[in-house]
């Protein structure tokens, strides 16, 4: 039972138990976070100790640890705790990544099945593109398994170029002129002027195609994904150079899949209004 209020922080300590294991401590910390809701936006040390049957000193240590990591914040006047900024950060990450996966994974699976490649939806993250949804559709000894959270540099590989090609020229210049441009393979383009010409060509033909720019063993073809009329991310299909020999035949399938993703994003936006 959750107490609605705490009259004071005084009270007898419960009997001391044997020290909890690290796993038990982690589980208890997570349970504490789940105690905060609309009905109970604040908790004190006594309430947490009573709820879990632990000593107040142990409850204080758990609350202090969560506060130190930003998951809770304490009011110095009332000595009570509320959820902290780290919970907001994680919530936004779920909204950005977790819900997106559920939204687009069926489309990625169908595209992977059609192309026999690994498919990736990536979103911009500072000077990179970050994989937020991916399906491994490759098979055999030569495989390319994309990882959720993997970062791709803005200047190397079709996954990034398909998105950055649609940004305003002034924004690209600011991005690439002011940042070091690393070379990952002997095919990585590092000259800002050459990159700008590539971006213009990508935008004109509607897709990006690269071979061995970021990973020497990977061919990647990608298209831009839009949301509310603006560049949102990129959708790519990738495979080993040994087997992915005619990627441009999949351009229509990529555009259809991107359109399906855009339609789902639009429906979600309308539903959230």
TrEMBL record:
Report if keyword Ribosomal protein is assigned.
no
Note the InterPro entries from the entry: GAF-like_dom_sf (IPR029016), HTH_MetabolicPath_Reg (IPR050707), Tscrpt_reg_IclR_C (IPR014757), Tscrpt_reg_IclR_N (IPR005471), WH-like_DNA-bd_sf (IPR036388), WH_DNA-bd_sf (IPR036390)
Task: Please name the PROSITE patterns in this protein's record.
Answer: HTH_ICLR, ICLR_ED
Annotated IclR-ED domain ranges read 86-267
Query: Matching SMART domains, A to Z?
Result: HTH_ICLR
Give GO BP annotations, semicolon-separated.
glycerol metabolic process; negative regulation of DNA-templated transcription
For this protein, what is any one GO molecular function term? DNA binding
Q: Where is the HTH iclR-type domain?
A: 23-85
Q: Where in this protein does the record put region Disordered?
A: 1-21
User: What keywords were assigned to this record?
Assistant: DNA-binding, Glycerol metabolism, Transcription, Transcription regulation
Q: Does the keyword Glycoprotein apply?
A: no
Functionally, this protein is described as follows: May be an activator protein for the gylABX operon.
Full protein name: Glycerol operon regulatory protein
